[in-house]
Write a structure and sequence with these properties.
This protein is α+β, with helices and mostly antiparallel strands and 196 residues long. The chain has a domain of 118 residues. The chain is 38% helix and 19% strand. Strands 1, 2, 3, 4, 5 and 6 form a six-stranded antiparallel β-sheet that branches. The longest helix is centred in the middle third of the chain and has 25 residues. The radius of gyration is 39 Å and the shape is elongated. The protein starts with a helix and ends with a helix. This is DUF1783-domain-containing protein.
Length: 196
């Protein structure tokens, strides 16, 4: 096997020569293209960058973003109320209540396609107070349902369940008939009395 030392010196000289030429090569910066200067055929990485003009577009987009977030948040909370057990139960009770069907007619449902459910649904702290518009085949009315839980482990007591017609007439559905769905059964009444 021939020795490698004689080959090493010519290769080292070749590398030294290439390194020296690489160090002396310098590239000049290319100015950025100007408007109407024609198509840019080549874009080099070491070109001079254009000056950045300060943009005020965030002054328009930030309020629009905040407004969109506020509307989305309200829509999400309203949708959560609309699908809560309180609203679906009161809607079912309106459909099955004879007096409500006599006033509203058949096909009782929300008055608008995207209903607004006003009030508070806080079952954890025992406070329910909801208001929303309903309609039937005869007319529409504002339904209000109020209920509270007097003790932490108690049962909800309904204080108001009414319909307010468009002319301002208030109809109390809770006390109008003897059979309404929000009164405690005799067994529940005994449990409430025993707890108190």
């Amino acid at each position: 096997m021939p020795p490698r030392l004689p080959l090493r010196k010519p290769l080292e000289a070749l590398f030294k020569r290439n390194n020296a030429t690489n160090l002396t090569c310098r590239r000049t910066l290319i100015a950025p293209p100007k408007p109407n200067s024609g198509p840019l055929m080549e874009r080099r990485a070491d070109r001079a960058l254009p000056d950045m003009t300060p943009s005020k577009s965030w002054m328009i987009t930030a309020p629009l973003f905040l407004a969109a977030m506020a509307v989305s948040t309200l829509a999400i909370f309203n949708y959560q109320k609309q699908n809560s057990s309180v609203v679906t139960s009161t809607m079912y009770s309106l459909r099955t209540n004879a007096l409500a069907r006599e006033i509203l007619g058949d096909e009782v449902y929300f008055a608008s396609k995207i209903p607004y459910i006003g009030g508070e649904i806080n079952q954890l702290h025992g406070k329910i107070d909801v208001v929303y518009w309903v309609k039937g085949t005869r007319q529409q009315a504002k339904m209000r349902f109020k209920s509270h839980r007097p003790t932490r482990m108690g049962i909800f007591e309904t204080t108001e369940w009414s319909l307010e017609l468009e002319d301002g007439t208030l109809i109390d559905l809770l006390n109008a008939t003897n059979t309404h769905p929000f009164v405690a059964t005799p067994m529940e009444a005994k449990a409430i009395a025993a707890e108190a």
